[in-house]
Structures are given as structure tokens and as C-alpha cells.
Amino acid sequence: MARMPETTRSRGRDMQIELGYGREMRTLDIADDNIAAVVYPRDKPGVTDPVAAVARSLDTPVDSASLSEIIAGYGAPRVAIIVNDITRPVPYQHILPPLMRHLETVPPEHIDFIVATGIHRGQTDREHRELYSDEIVDTYRVTNHDCDRGLVDFGTLSDGTPLSINERVAAADVVVGTGMISLHYFAGYSGGRKAIVPGVSGREIITRSHSMMVDPRAQCGCIADNPVSDMMLEGARRIPRLFIVNVVTNSKKEIVRVVSGHMEKAWKEGVEVCRDMFCYPMDRRYPVVIASAGGYPKDINVYQAQKALEYASYATEEGGTIVLVAECGEGYGEATFERWMKEASNPGEVLNRMNGGFELGGHKAFAIARTVCEKDVVLVSGLTAERVKTLFCHAATDLSEALSWIKKKHGGSFRALIMPEAGSTFPVVS
Fold first, then answer.
1. 102 near 66, Cβ under 8 Å?
2. What is the CATH architecture assignment of 50-277?
């Protein structure tokens, strides 16, 4: 079940374990006797030629004609390519070159790149270039989605929720949804349908879908009878010409599988690969869990790092302690989330506020409050102690201070589970 990582070096009774922290690493010096287990994703090897793997997938898509064949059915089609933002480590350097070869007959002015920001902040030109390349930005129109304007009405879903979609996506003859399939703490898995909802949809449906996170069926690693995933699928099905290109990556950010074609069928093939790697069976929970979000961009802010905290909490006993290692260079990461945390004097107030009415962004505050009500959280980050206090966590300047905190609470003979890639490791406790 557990293995010692390649980055661990034995020094008698001491171990050194490298944990991601922003774009760097932090070394955990811990006695061997204090380590109960170290768990990593069960990585599959990356493909030897990722660009060729993407090209093969595009040539032989799942339950769909190839993209070039679809394009050939139009004279001069309008194409919308939905791309993830900076918070998702999607390897676009491998995805976009073969993708654009399938679109070489389309005039550049007929191709729009839409950044699926959902409710995230819009990206800067520099971030566009970092993610998609100078050539893409200089050749095509790249715009950030705005969930409050530039939308087209797509009617209502079966539960009455209004659906609106980005106007450039709505106007396209062909829509290409790109992204990465990974664990998601209440939608089950990312990728596929999430390019549309919440990626390029209006605030109302984003709010509604996120409000269902309190439903006990809305669980990480689960898409069967998951109301959040079901709503996202229903919304994405409204796009008649949606072709996806999704990748599954290992903990080294290497592509292990590419799936292209039919939005649901191709995505579900990728989900199976993701489940095999990242859902980790365990037979018990632990009193102490030391978890890294996995470094940049998974710890770019608290809003993103919360996912690692959520997964670590599944492995932690009630009343136990989680040490979360996450730089959070951009602070909280979302204004409403920050406001909810700052306006509460205790985590119970956050839970009650959620029960009184859902507000997008507040869902992250709710998720953190739910965890800290049951466990102590020690945060090793770049945040000030005062900002950490508003998260109802204990601040530690480094891992040594965090270990001292653990020893005071649990004693020197504590036993810890260590999760160096907590943002990609979901403990399934029998």
C-alpha cells in the first residue's frame, strides 16, 4: 500500500523527504520511527513521445470522427478552443502543436482560444504566453472567460437552473474542450464536461453546481449518482459540436494517457486511468498526516491548496493533526472565500453561514471549516501568522516548527502518514 519515495535518503534513524513548496522543495527531516507510511500516487510511466501520443489520439478519437474530418464538413468554420488557466498544470506544449495541425485549414481569425476561468481571476498576457506559447498568443485571439458578461442563454436544465455559456463558444461551429483529468474533491474528477460547466458558463449555474457540494453523494473520486457531476454533464451536452482532448498525467506531470473525441465516452476512459493511479486504498486512518499540495501551481493560493487539505483529511483520525505544506504565494486566491474566513470568529460560524445560503467562493471556506472542526491543521506557507489564523489553522514558518508542534500535542513517539503529492492522492479507507 505504501512505499518510501525515491527522494528519501536514509541516515541511520533519520529520514529526509522532499516536499513540493511553490516552485521549490522543502526537506522534511523526520525520525524513521515517526513514519508510519509514505504514500504516493501509483504512477504509470509517462509516454516516451507525448506529442506523438496526442497526435495518435487525435487521429483515432473515441466514438467520433477526427477533428480534421469534422472541420472538413464546413466551409470556413468558427472554432472555439477552451483551455485551462494557470491553476491547472496542463502540458499545452505537447497538446497544442498536434491539435493545431488538425485546424491548419481554418483561417486564424476564425479560431478563438477561450480561457476557462470559471470564477477565477482573468489571466495576464504573460501567463497566456507561459501556458500556450508566444506563437499561439500572437497568431490567435486569446480571451479570458467572464462568468458575468458576454454570455448567451442556453435555456434551463432539468432542475430549472438557467444555463448561459460564453458567447464565443456559443457562436462556434466546432468547440474543442482541452484539459486534464484529475481528482476533484466534490465533482469526482475534473476534465471532460468541466470545460463547459463551470469553465465557460455563467455565474448562476456555477453557483448552483457548487452549492451541491454539501450533498453526501458529491464525493471525490465518485461520478456515479454525483449531483454535481450530473449537472455538469447535462450542461455540457447542450453544446452540439463538442470534441475533447484530455490528458491524464502522473505525479511527475508526465502524460500517461491521452483521450480525444466524444465528450463523455473519451472522458470516462481517462477517468478509469486516473482512478487506478490516484485513488489509494487504506485500511486505517492516522493521528498525524504530513501533506504537501505538490508544489506550484497546486499551492498557488489557499483556494487551490484546499484540495490537498481535503484529501489529507480523509486519511486523518478525528482529533488528529494535518500539517499542510503549501506556499500560497497569491494569498487566499478568491475574494468571497477570503471575506467569509475573515468575517467568522470560529469555524462553526462558517458552517452556519453555508446553511443559511450558498455564495460562490464561500464553498471553499465551508470545506476548510468542515476539516478544522474535526482536526488541527498546521500550515507551513508564505502567509503571515495573522492570515493563517483567519483560516483557523496554526502557522509554522518551516517543517521543523511544525514537527515541534506535533510533538507537543502527540508526544515524541507519534506516527505519521506522509503524503508528498496530497493534491493527487485520494485515500480510500475501507
1. yes
2. 3-Layer(aba) Sandwich (3.40)
Instruction: Read off the pLDDT band of 374 (50, 70, 90).
Output: very high
**How many CB atoms are located within 10 Å of the residue 125 CB?**
9
CATH number assigned to the domain with residue range 9-38+283-429, chosen from the 4 options 1.10.599.10, 3.90.700.10, 3.90.226.30, 1.10.630.10: 3.90.226.30
Write the pLDDT tens digit of every residue in 380-412.
999 999 999 999 999 999 999 999 999 999 999
Domain ranges in the chain? Answer: 9-38+283-429, 50-277
Average pLDDT over residues 226-246: 96
For 35-61, the pLDDT digits (tens) are 999 998 888 999 999 999 999 999 999
CB-side exposure of 38: number of CA atoms within 13 Å? 20
Cell of 231: 449537472
405-415 pLDDT, tens digit each: 999 999 999 99
| H, E, C per residue of the chain | CCCCCCCCEEECCEEEEEEEECCEEEEEEEEHHHEEEECCCCCCCCCCCHHHHHHHHHHCCECCCCHHHHHHCCCCCCEEEEECCCCCCCCHHHHHHHHHHCCCCCCHHHEEEEECCCCCCCCCHHHHHHHHCHHHHHHCEEEECCCCCCEEEEEECCCCCEEEEEHHHHHCCEEEEEEECCEECCCEECCHHHHCCCCCECHHHHHHHHHHHHCCCCCCCCCCCCHHHHHHHHHHCCCCCEEEEEEEECCCCCEEEEEEEEHHHHHHHHHHHHHHHHEEEECCCEEEEEEECCCCCCCCCHHHHHHHHHHHHHCEEEEEEEEEECCCCCCCCCHHHHHHHHHCCCHHHHHHHHHHCCCCCHHHHHHHHHHHCCCEEEEECCCCHHHHHHCCCEEECCHHHHHHHHHHHHCCCCCEEEECCHHHCEEEEC
CA atoms in the 13 A half-sphere facing the CB of 110: 17
Total Cβ atoms within 10 A of residue 26: 17
What is the pTM for the complete model shown? 0.81
